[in-house]
TrEMBL record:
<dbReference type="InterPro" id="IPR010158">
    <property type="entry name" value="Amidase_Cbmase"/>
</dbReference>
<dbReference type="InterPro" id="IPR036264">
    <property type="entry name" value="Bact_exopeptidase_dim_dom"/>
</dbReference>
<feature type="domain" description="Peptidase M20 dimerisation">
    <location>
        <begin position="209"/>
        <end position="311"/>
    </location>
</feature>
<keyword id="KW-0614">Plasmid</keyword>
<keyword id="KW-0378">Hydrolase</keyword>
<dbReference type="GO" id="GO:0016813">
    <property type="term" value="F:hydrolase activity, acting on carbon-nitrogen (but not peptide) bonds, in linear amidines"/>
</dbReference>
<dbReference type="Pfam" id="PF01546">
    <property type="entry name" value="Peptidase_M20"/>
</dbReference>
<dbReference type="InterPro" id="IPR011650">
    <property type="entry name" value="Peptidase_M20_dimer"/>
</dbReference>
<dbReference type="InterPro" id="IPR002933">
    <property type="entry name" value="Peptidase_M20"/>
</dbReference>
<protein>
    <submittedName>
        <fullName>N-carbamoyl-L-amino acid amidohydrolase</fullName>
        <ecNumber>3.5.1.-</ecNumber>
    </submittedName>
</protein>
<dbReference type="Pfam" id="PF07687">
    <property type="entry name" value="M20_dimer"/>
</dbReference>
Amino acid sequence: MPSVSLDSERFRRRFDTFNKIGATERGGVNRPSLSDENKAARDTLVEWFREAGLEVRIDTMGNIFGRRDGTDSDAAPVLFGSHIDSQYNGGRYDGVIGVLGGLEVIEAFNDAGVTTERPLEVVDWSNEEGVRFQPDMLGSGVYCDIFDLDYAYEREDKESRRFGDELERIGYKGETSCEADDIHCYFEMHVEQGPFLEQQDIPVAAVEGVFGFSWLNVTFEGQANHAGPTPMDMRHDAFVATADVTRAVRRITATEGTDLVGTVGSVDVWPNAINVIPETVEFTLDFRSYDDAVVDAAVEQIREEVAHAAEREGLEYEIEEIMRVDADPFDQGCIDTVVEAAETVGCEYTRLVSGAGHDANYLNKIAPTSMIFVPSVDGISHRESEFTEWDDIVTGTEVLLNAVQTKAAE
Ligand code: HGY
Ligand code: MN
Ligand code: MN
């Protein structure tokens, strides 16, 4: 079999060109799901998929698949990819290296004139980040039958724009039904988004599973009033209760010996005026652990904390769990394939569990799945200064190439 190798210069040119789309002044990207910038990135990706000779299909959730036929065109394909939607001021690597790295793997087979036995498919999943439209991993979630299409189409952003309407507006409400095909296996290469690989000075990790997590929306309803004449004992201040719950998140997650993490990431205050007691606060909670029982307990505790904070301040409240993903170990066969691929490449590697959610969470429920991590400098992600050394990305992509080649011959 002729040797199949990456062209890292081509890959780098593509990566740099791609990240000019929605580039921010501070070196990051702003390509939130279904925005004009996301459309421009999608258009570029479809053009590159076609230039690479891939058969492109877009499904009803806007997931973009590029298919390269195999000698056995009826065989279940090897699927690999990630996402190109970003945080509002996110990093250039999160998701993008998994999609463009997947395209580079395809191009390497093209350059070598090698046709694999199984078909290969590279995918860009819609709405992985879940910052504009919650919940996250919506495109892969509908594909894996976690969410139904109507639910997804009804999701609204903060300006009350519907997911389904925005998907149509950017021209990516495809024809193909968004439902799982028969897939041989799924790989996703991604930046670690944590500090461990860099701390250990290791370029690659075979990912053994992903944390489970819960996302909740909380609304406190108090009473706006004048910040001056209103005596403190007459106040019903929605923000004070929010602060109480935020401190409670720190107390709950301070328990030694667990991997539990908790975040209050998004807070909307109304009327948000310097001299008005906050009437309404809507905020989010994000709890994660590799142990589902630990997440369940944290959610239980925070529900009590919300009720107590509302009672203390004399507020009405609502709490809604908008998403719950269970922790899942990945497929041992796929993990072993990633390990063997790293040994073939000859790079040092370790094994990690992912604290970040990925489309692989859901693919893992319908097909053998694993992931490949490459280091994040200073463990930074979801921030414009997210950075990964290019050599590490090339190494990770070589591991992806070898893993795909192995599974495509099975
Ligand atoms: O929330 C996550 O872990 C992912 O970035 N959507
Ligand atoms: Mn990601
Ligand atoms: Mn992300």
